[in-house]
């Protein structure tokens, strides 16, 4: 039934490998399989019994041959004997003569393996009786000896005179041929007790009837043995019964009877041995029996028994000495007279040869033995091997596991043979070998299934990870603002990341097209050279700046291209042992247009910084010079009446000085170093005041064809800044707009409030916030697109400078707006005009309240003032101005002198020039030293240099106002009084 069980259905019973680890799965599978095989082995179905018998046959037939202990001679009634003497049956006197000749040879025991169950029909006695009964003839046989007349008597007398053993045959069913009562000699069998129990009883075969020799023959012979021997189910005769029970008595087999006769033994005993083997013991022999009293025939012997033809014996051709002291077996191998049996040692062995082999086997030192308990040992060995194989399959590769399994099966077979050769114990290697091989096959399949499922699971997990990685990679590529690309070996796009969609609506259109089509013509040579170098590693192309014909849809990029930085390297692939093959290029394209714009702005800022430093230096020197032109006229005009002709001339000098100061002030505005953002301004008021100023009227007279309109928001909020500088911005914007309309035109000035909820991308990026906007729009010639980015650069102008413009107007506008933390937007188109919009941060603060007219009495005093000034002309000027204001003046030329003066005498106020010379302390250091001595010492700062961080630091530690040079008597006097009248020291 097992043939119909498929391997798949069998494996389905085993645990799923995914549910536990491999070792547990293999152990469980091996346990189930070993249990299944062991159970079948115990049940012992026909196929198992057949295979078990064959495995035992192999052990028996391949075992080493053993030297026989007995000298056995076989007398064969063969074909030659039948040819010379006649067909069988012979007259018994002839057979008797044969036996007498054997006996005369001095044989120790003569076993007759031939049955004579009936009278000899050839005897003269039988002829005489037949003639008398049938024909009435009476023969006179008085002169003939009785044993000649009766051949049976002749044979009986022969048997009675020698050591003969006859044979008989038991039947296990009632048989009509039986001749009870049959004169059989039973044996005596003793069973010694072992401990509390008795040795396991042997269940001997029980005969129902018997076929014996003719009674006279049986009576003449005292010894006989049964000739029974039945092959196994497969037809091979392996076992011979040694004892059979008949009428509750035990009788020996023919070879056992011969040995007992040889050793003159009448009694037998059954003794226990290891492995629950019962051993039949007599005359020093211990012969193992199975539970039915069978004996396994074996082992193989080095020589067979010597064989002589019966005809040769009768004819005297055999020397009688060749039989002396030997066991002689008489039988027949002639065709039709003898049966042949397959045995483990021969395909066809005659009964007489089988008896001879049995005799040798019984007398040998090694007796084949096997009982039912052997099966349990074989199961235990199988379990051990399966456990070992589980570990082997778990840790070894399949090939190595197969080799080990084959070796284990071989060792089981070789071990079984070795055990038999040494002790005669017949362990069958069938179950261990079958268990090892089947476990290897099934466990290998389970292991394969385990790894298959594991690989499937890992493959699934890998696919999930790959899909996740692909999704993550795609997400990463989507989040990367730079363009990731890959080219084939010819420079055509084969992959491009989604970032390209910011420049091209259909990115897939790029695939298959060469990259050179998108490089600006001016950069194609450079790109072709660098991207075709195919380099990798440190020599790869890094940060190659090129222009690509890509534009953002929301930007009007100059000339239809943007700046990009390309980093790329070659891709190579190796096939087997071939050299590396170039397959393409991969890299990243980064948009650096904004960076280029920032770089240009940085360059512009650096230019502004240079110009600012230059302007600050010039302003410092000019302000010192202009102090005399602005400050001294104040003193002179106080002394000269207005009707004096000198008053007008001195006023003209002062006006020129002030105009020169305005120019210097423009330089400082350019340097962004003199803007005071502490006041509150309103752009509507500043625009209105400028449009009503004499400067604007002169501009209108110069350009009469220009019309200016305003659209001012009445609810315009204020800004924090400088009225003077914002006025300058408006003046420059209007002036530039008018000059942009040489043939005349209209200008519109607009103001308004604006709330930006998000950043605004314009000429520059304007962050979200609340702004006050002012725009000046004209319909003039406009600005070329290529010039638009440079209009705020210093000294950059398209005007004819000998007629109008210095190239600083727009720069001053830019610097002023930036000082006010504002932003600009410029929109222009050639031939249609320009609109410039300024965005200034709004404030909720109100406008400053204007004070009344100041007179000299408001800023005179009598306190003591220490003046620290390193320039002699400036010291004289300050002395005269302060004395005119009524103050007591102490003049020093350095910081060290100032510290010494304060140490000698206390003063109400210190006037500090911030720049005091290269080798002396400057104003800040001087004030720090003074504050150490007088922590509450008041001071104001004067300087011809623009306000700096050091001036602001001096103010943080206690200094008062900063008065820039050149200053008027009123400006100096008000600053002094403000500081002296403030609460403090």
List keywords for this structure.
985 residues, 5 domains, 27 helices, Beta-Lactamase, rod-shaped
> What is the oligomer described by this structure?
single chain
Count of the separate structural domains? 5
User: N-to-C terminal Cα separation, in Å?
Assistant: 123 Å
Strand content: 15-25%
Please count the beta strands (DSSP E, at least 2 residues each): 39
In terms of structural class, how would the helical and strand content be classed? alpha/beta
Query: Whole-number average pLDDT?
Result: 82
Q: What is the overall silhouette?
A: rod-shaped
Low-confidence stretches: 1-14, 194-199
User: In this structure, how is the largest beta sheet organized?
Assistant: 7 strands, mixed
- Helices, by number, come to 27
What is the helix content? Answer: 40-55%
* Radius of gyration of CA atoms, rounded to a whole number: 69 Å
Topology:
Blueprint: H1 7-13, H2 22-43, H3 46-62, E1 72-77, H4 79-85, H5 92-104, E2 109-112, H6 124-134, H7 146-149, H8 151-160, E3 164-171, E4 188-190, E5 193-194, E6 197-198, E7 206-207, E8 209-211, H9 215-220, E9 223-226, E10 239-241, E11 243-246, E12 249-252, H10 254-263, E13 267-273, E14 277-282, E15 285-289, E16 294-296, E17 306-309, H11 310-314, E18 327-332, E19 340-343, E20 346-350, H12 351-363, H13 373-395, H14 398-423, H15 430-479, E21 483-488, E22 493-496, H16 524-531, E23 541-548, E24 562-573, E25 581-591, H17 593-639, H18 645-671, E26 680-681, H19 683-691, H20 694-702, E27 706-711, E28 718-720, H21 723-739, E29 745-756, E30 760-761, E31 765-766, E32 769-778, H22 809-819, E33 823-829, E34 833-843, E35 864-868, H23 872-884, E36 888-892, H24 895-904, E37 909-913, H25 923-933, E38 939-943, H26 949-956, E39 962-964, H27 969-981
Parallel strand pairs: 1-17, 1-18, 2-3, 2-18, 3-9, 4-13, 7-11, 27-29, 35-36, 35-37, 37-38, 38-39
Antiparallel strand pairs: 3-8, 5-6, 10-16, 11-12, 13-14, 14-15, 19-20, 21-22, 21-25, 23-24, 24-25, 26-28, 28-34, 29-32, 30-31, 32-34, 33-34
